[in-house]
Write the structure tokens for this entry.
Amino acid sequence: MKYYPKRLASVGAFLLAGALAHGTIIFADDFEARSSGDLDGQGTWTSPSGLNQYTVETDGGLGNVIIGGGNQRIFTESGSGDGSSPTFATFAAESHNQIFVRFNYNATATSGGPFFSFRLTDDDGDFNSTLGITVQNGQLRPRSTNASGGITQLTSGVPAISADTTHTIVFMAEKTGAAGDNFDRVTAWLNPALAGENADDLLAVANLSGGVVATADTGVSSFSAISFQKGSSGGQAAIQLDSMMVAIPEPSVYAALLSLGALAIIVLLRRHR
């Protein structure tokens, strides 16, 4: 029997490309199906009272600036928030080695006092055991917290983020194996070219350069909520959010990767005969 290593390699590359392109959505909300008014209590959403309260609106309170996902989005007004009361939505606990998150973000200010955090968490959205991002001092920063609330975040070489501009933010939570079965790394991208509003595009972002990384053991092996909040100090920005999605690679990814490994073995065996 004749073997064709180049052909096998081409087939393998095709399988790998296909494997990396497919994902399963485990949570998504573009707020089009939500009722106008308080977000709290709609679906699995919990949003506190006061200036950290998000409402579902058409114009976001900042004029009719469409930021993706249709005509509706969520909005919180300017002013100091309650740093201990996040807004969060729950989903079935997910322990996949990679979890991808994307959302659209627009704020009236991003530098100086304003602070905003968006993260994956294992419970009701507190600051312990999380992976995600912060917007602070005009920067998009990847951020990890451990089980005691200790913070690891990257503050140098990170992308600048502008006020009054719609940004697409993507981050990927990972288990590298360095912390056993716990999540221990987050990679973040600002306005990545491939971040469309479907799971395949979201997963493809992992192949792009330009991601910024923070690494720390979160102490947890699964996440079951997305959570966000603004800071409690004065001068916090008005914020609009939309087009949220959480996705994981499909199980078929692994089957394709195994097939690719088998093809590689065939090539190597043929070369050594």
Residues 196 and 202 are 6 Å apart (CA to CA). The first strand starts at residue 23 and ends at 29. The radius of gyration is 20 Å. Helices lie at 5-19, 199-204, 252-271.
